[in-house]
Amino acid sequence: MDDFCKNLAMGPTKATATVSPRGRHQVVVLVRPGLLPMELGIVHRLFGQAVSPSGEPLYEVVTCTPRPGVIPTDTDFTLNVAAGPEALENADTVVVPAAQEDYEPQERGRISTGMARALARVPAGARVASICTGSFVLAAAGLLAGRRATTHWKSCEEFRTLYPEIEVDADVLYTDDGGVLTSAGVASGIDLCLYMIRTDHGAEVANAVARGTVVPPHREGGQAQYIERPVTPPEQCSTGPAREYALRHLDRPLKLDELADRASMSVRTFNRRFRQEAGLTPMQWLTQQRVDRARQLLERTDLPVDRIATEAGFGTGTALRQHFHAALGVSPRAYRCTFRGAADGAVT
Q1: What is the per-residue burial (b if ≥16 Cβ within 10 Å, else e) of 234-262?
Q2: 172-223 pLDDT, tens digit each
Q3: How far is residue 58's CA from residue 197's CA, in Å, rounded to a whole number?
Q4: How far apart are the first and last CA of the chain?
């Protein structure tokens, strides 16, 4: 590892997995009465599938609650949670799912004594995340003050009114502000968990987890929440062929009219239909895919940055660095160092 990588490793970095002194990264899910069981299942299923190249589990997932015992859910069954809040003292990542109480009228700072005491046990430096309206718990505990966050779109206005000091973004799937993460609805909890796995261990591990769960491997946090968007009927034209064509030719300059032709649409119709189907403009989506291609090449190859810029369709290393930093908050060099160490001087 060269000096740059050594210096990077000495400080906190966005793309690194904390490893517990006990070995595996400890993910602790803090649940409450009225839990939405699907959200608990998401965390166990996704992190539980993440393995190293040798097949070793990369995470240990534990469920805890302020008062161990039988926990009612928002369904017709209960959960028996054996671990108490002391489990949080060993956490590297803490996840707070939603509960039925979040959908009742809220008051600023409303958090039970048990939940407040439990969160006080979380070690300094641990990553903390919420799924859906679990963000109300993080806000009430003061963990989101001055940060950017999201929650389910139906609750965003209430959230913004109660916590004006929080920058609420209703148009994204998830946020990551300095290791405190929030997600929108239940399904975006999948995106958030995959994002954390990808941040910790790279696209290859996260993609394997996604394939095992049969979900899309990657939706950027900036993609819009699906708020009252009509589903395109199968018999109507789709922008899918254009997206497939673009993915096969990312290294080429791709113009909007060329993509519209692939979908047999006018540019105006293509733009409108694309936003309906993908939640992004065609150019936003294309940039996202190119960043993802560059990320994969940085993780898997020793190609220099200028060559990766060409392969991903950015043209120049300067353009790649600008888009990469805008999307991920780090340079291509820092990203590669995090996942691969020095690459025989190939990182430029």
Answers
A1: eeeebbeebbeebeeebeeebebeebbeb
A2: 889 999 899 999 988 899 999 999 998 899 888 988 898 888 776 656 544 4
A3: 9
A4: 14
| Strand pairing category for 180-183 and 93-96 | unpaired
Residues with Cβ within 8 Å of 123's Cβ and at least 6 positions away in sequence, in order, are 89, 90, 91
CA dist 195 and 220 (Å) reads: 8
Q: Given CA atoms 104, 110, 114, 117 in this order, what sign does their dihedral have?
A: positive
What sign does the dihedral 327-329-330-335 (CA atoms) show?
negative
The strand pair at 59-64 and 69-72 is best described as unpaired
- In DSSP terms, 73 is beta-bridged to 35
pTM attached to this predicted model: 0.67
Which positions ≥6 away from 235 have C-beta within 8 Å? Answer: none
Which pLDDT value is given to residue 18? 53
- The answer to whether the beta carbons of residues 173 and 223 sit under 8 Å apart is yes
What pLDDT was estimated at residue 157?
93
Amino acid present at 87: A
Q: If we measure between CA atoms, which residue out of 207, 196, 249 comes closest to residue 59?
A: 196
Alpha carbon of 156 to those of 55, 163, 191, 230: distances in Å? Answer: 41, 10, 19, 21
CA distances from 15 to 96, 222, 295, 328, 334 (A): 21, 18, 12, 9, 9
Strands 180-183 and 174-177, by their bridges, are: antiparallel
Q: What is the mean pLDDT of residues 244-270?
A: 93
pLDDT surpasses 50 at 2: no
Strand partners, 27: 61, 93
State residue 300's pLDDT score.
85
pLDDT above 90: percentage of residues in the chain: 64
Task: Mention every residue, 6+ apart, whose C-beta is less than 8 A from residue 195.
Answer: 174, 176, 181, 206, 221
Question: Residue for token digits 């940085």?
Answer: 298
Residues 45-53, mean pLDDT to the nearest whole number:
95
